[in-house]
Structures are given as structure tokens and as C-alpha cells.
Write a structure and sequence with these properties.
The protein has 146 residues and is α/β, with parallel strands linked by helices. It has a single domain, classed as 3-Layer(aba) Sandwich (Aldehyde Dehydrogenase, Chain A, domain 2), CATH 3.40.309.10. The strands form two sheets. The chain has a four-stranded mixed β-sheet, covered by helices on one side. The chain has a two-stranded antiparallel ribbon with strand order 3-4. A hairpin with a 4-residue loop joins β3 and β4. The mean pLDDT is 87.
Length: 146
């Protein structure tokens, strides 16, 4: 089953804190650097490496964390990219690599439209909110399964 997050959509007020926490988590997981860690996989071949590298090169977004590449090792560092539009090239296809896009949206209804713009039928939508009304809005993504 593939239900890994393809992107993060967050409120602008929590963006800086979120990025700081992701950076802290990555530093904790890889204290000697990501590439030196024996716990992180490499791209399985040069073709896969180049495909993910081209996704990273095609984005109009800003790399906030990571971004280091080593073609001789098929290594791509976990990378967080801030994008400004749901039509950014990074969001067209699944990365199948260690790249995740970050978008911000201040309004939940606009966020739901953004999600549908990226993909009309997402595999999963994870909502993190203590507001029950907001949590229940995820129901708009449910569909009948026969």
C-alpha cells in the first residue's frame, strides 16, 4: 500500500515552527549527516536518481532543507521544498524519492480546493487539528467502494 505523504499543506502561522521541527527531527535521526547514515536508502539505479533529480530541478519552489545530491552514490538527501502553487511541477507526479513539497494555505476550504487541484482523488488525506468541525471536513474525500 502506498499512502506516504506527497506534500505537506499547512497554515502559514505554523510554517516556521513546522520547518524547524522537521529540521530538528532530521538532525536527530542523522546526527552524522544523512549520507553517512547506514539507515537511509539510495535511489535504486541511475535512471531513478535522474528522474527524481529532474523533479527537484524543475520545481519553482525554494529548497528549505536538504537538497544535496551525489550521483556516484545515487544519493538524494531528504529534501523539503516550499512551493507557491498547487500546479508546481514537483506536484505533478509522485516523487518516489526523498523529496516533499510544502504549501501554505490560511483557509481550510481553500486548502481542500488545493488538495483537489493537485489530485482529484487522493489516496489519503491526513488532517491534524483539534477542531472537530475541521476534522469532519475530510469526509468530503470519502467515496463509495464497491
Amino acid at each position: 500500500m502506498c499512502a506516504a505523504p506527497g506534500y505537506i499543506l499547512c497554515h502559514p502561522e505554523v510554517e516556521q515552527e513546522l520547518v524547524a521541527e522537521i529540521a530538528k527531527a532530521w538532525k536527530g535521526l542523522y546526527p552524522n549527516g544523512v549520507q553517512a547514515s547506514g539507515d537511509i536508502a539510495r535511489m535504486n539505479n541511475n535512471r531513478s536518481f535522474n528522474r527524481v533529480k529532474s523533479l527537484l530541478q524543475s520545481t519553482k519552489g525554494e529548497i528549505l532543507l536538504g537538497g544535496n545530491l551525489d550521483e556516484t552514490d545515487n544519493f538524494i538527501e531528504p529534501t523539503l521544498v516550499k512551493v507557491d502553487s498547487p500546479t508546481d511541477p514537483l506536484l505533478r507526479d509522485e516523487a518516489f524519492g526523498p523529496i516533499i513539497a510544502l504549501l501554505t494555505e490560511a483557509d481550510l476550504d481553500r486548502a481542500l480546493i488545493t488538495i483537489r487541484t493537485i489530485c482529484a482523488t487522493p489516496l489519503a488525506v491526513y488532517i491534524f487539528s483539534s477542531d472537530k468541525k475541521e476534522q469532519n471536513k475530510r469526509g468530503c474525500f470519502r467515496r463509495k467502494v464497491f
